[in-house]
Request: fold
Amino acid sequence: MHAPETKSADGEIGAAFDDFMSAFEGFKDANEERLRQIESRMGADVVTSEKIDRISHAMDEQKKAMDRLILKRARPELGGAAAAPLALEHKEAFHAYLRSGDDRQLKAIEQKAMSYGSAADGGYLVPAAIEQEIGGKLAQISPIRSIATVRQVSSAVLKKPFSVTGPVVGWAAETAARSQTASPTLDELQFPTAELYAMPAATPALLEDSVVDLDRWISAEIETAFAEQEGTAFVSGDGTNKPKGFLSYAKAAESAWEWGKIGYVATGEAGDFAETDPADVLIDTIYALKAGYRQNASWVMNRRTQAALRKIKDGDGNYLWQPPAAPGGRAMLMGFQVVESEDMPNMATDATPIAFGDFARGYLVVDRTGVRVLRDPYSAKPYVLFYTTKRVGGGVQDFDAIKLVKFGTA
Reply:
């Protein structure tokens, strides 16, 4: 029944991908002309430079359009005939609450379930199907969440012990006595969860329209708002009533790195790549990461930094940046995937606009189970507000796993 729609969506995605690849070929041709102008010592023509910037911007827009089509196709069906009786009962009760404010059924269901997700300001848990869709969509559109480890908890804080000194071991002959080893030194990382909220508004006419899919509406209204807010926090959050971003930790040059700090490699040029051999800093960053972390490593940067990297070639004349191999894929930089995060800083003196590492081992996202909705028909009459909350935490769990590129001399 849904086959024609899927086929049409696939065709749109394929066409968008073809447009993107055509733009990349045009970008390469224009950049080759720019390089020829530089080599002829005439300097790059302004018209050529502007053409490259226009094509690069068009590539970014085409990539966004393609991502939107892929995200739209990925939306799962909510509910369905195979849903459990309790799930259907919860869904019907939730709809009654959204449309009219009748919460009698929801109260009864949550009392039977002995819900642990009660919020201080009230509200009711959304049905599991909606929570799963919100979580799945966040993983697709929140850049850091898509590559980090995500753990669900039922408490307000996740505490994770780790060994500061490493495993305590010793050597001994087969029949020799074993001398006592030193005691391990343990420390504890804590990841508190903080409240993330959104407040979509609806008109009474929308709520009274029985054709409107309220599940889909509320998830669509809040997923982008949640993704944008948590995406910023995972990168640069200060840890006060929000997750702590990996750029908010103390930083140290790789030669002076120690646990608790994020190591960096400097470009040697204030606010830019080095004029000669600009790719060297990327190679140094890759190998600053231990071998065990490189297998699953990713680059993280915003589109402006990515645009600058598109112009750089290696010693053999090959572009370092390569486009996705297929629709829905990610661009590659020196053999590692590029994750685009607009919350990363721009290239500037002493900024760290590029991160590289195994974020699945390096960064932990903590989700407290349960998304709650509080219906408010009074604060913005005639609109009805839906105060939707979710508790999220995050922070670095392995300081060995993430490295930065610093655009500075030291």
